Amino acid sequence: MPDSPSPYPAFTRRDFLATGAKLGAMLVAAPAFVRAATGSQTLNVGLIGCGEQGRVLLNAALKIPDIRFKAVCDIWGYNRTYAERLLGKFGHEAKPFEDYREMLAAVPDLDAVIVATPDFVHAEHTNAALKAGKHVYCEKLMAHTVEAARSMVVTARETGKLLQIGHQRRSNPRYQHARDRLVKEAHLLGRINNASGQWNRAVTEDLGYPAKYALTEDKLNQYGYANMHEFRNWRWFKRYAGGPISDLGAHQIDIFNWMLGANPSSVLAGGGVDYYKNHEWYDNAYVIYEYPTPTGIVRCTYQVLTTTSAGGGYHEYFMGDEGALKISENPKYTKLYREARAPEWDQWVDKGLIGRPGSGEGAPAPVKPWEKPKPKLGGPSKSATVDVRETAELSAWDIPVTLDKAIHQPHLENFFDAIRKDTPLNCTGDQAFASAVTVLKVNEAIAARTMLTFKPTDFVV
């Protein structure tokens, strides 16, 4: 009986090898193609920078499904080992590298790279990863200079790869609810005229290191560091970063731009190295910005103090003629205030946008009848000390939106969703560039001891 013709074309071993080689090349060169072909949602990720912030991002990312860390990179073996072991506990077989160039060459099937290195190498690491075809999530501040930040935006455009900068408040659901529903939709603040922000932090000791794991002087110099102390405390030194205004203030000044939908027109600032004798950057800074908005000028003050925790921690405060929003990543600092002259807010409670006073996250437990304080007899009345020009006390309301995840997790989720589903990024390189320009100008203003102005073109790449 003759053989019936095969429905499939003949396929020799040579054909198989040739096709296999081509397919292999495609698999290596285009991990996105692999996902599309297999239906897999798993993203292969590499981490450059396994220090303090890298570990924060690592722990947040480990809670996100279908993320597989395949490589970690750090010039310090102590950090590499920590990250490698942590990932091993969660079943990730991440290869360790000292040099990011070796990592990018040796693990070509990475979809994305997280950059958590000191600010002065953000542009170098981000641009290299983008040019290698990877999407990049880079920590804030975007870069230590405006030109370095600009190069990152340009490279992202040229490569067509995604660039998300780690201003994570933009992905926090409480911040999004406050801006989109309370300020933009319900106009609960009325006309915003002023804003303030602060981060008051107690004195902290410099970071140390186990002596037996110290990097050699040659190794430190190879990667641009003067010594081990500066390597561990790079945030305080001018060659590596922008100091507390960049480290802490960047998060909150970015929220000024984001909430107001504008960039400032001027900045006036003062500060100094008044306490720490072994640091270069200002340990305290006071800033005044002017923001031109469609409803008028909004003046914003900002302070970062690194020698006291007095004064109410860290928050941003937006003040309008009908209400005020005090918001922080820490829910205990978050509250919404209504001016007595404002329309009633009951309708917004009914719609679920706000909660009645004392009903939200962090609200104290109801006081039981036998726990109520007894009135004191005698003594001066409090009302006797009130100035006649004092306005009625603000009523405090709650924001019924909570974040039950690590504070960086939603921003990382947004980045990974952008890769998988084309979800819009919450902080693109262009947006973060404007914030970097806004922040870096503060140090110039302190040094110049005068008001500096911005041109609208300063914020555009």
TrEMBL record:
Domain GFO/IDH/MocA-like oxidoreductase positions: 225-304
One Pfam entry name: GFO_IDH_MocA_C3
Keyword Ubl conjugation carried by entry: no
A GO MF label: nucleotide binding
SUPFAM superfamilies according to UniProt: Glyceraldehyde-3-phosphate dehydrogenase-like, C-terminal domain (SSF55347), NAD(P)-binding Rossmann-fold domains (SSF51735)
Keywords in alphabetical order: Oxidoreductase
Protein name listed in UniProt: Putative oxidoreductase YcjS
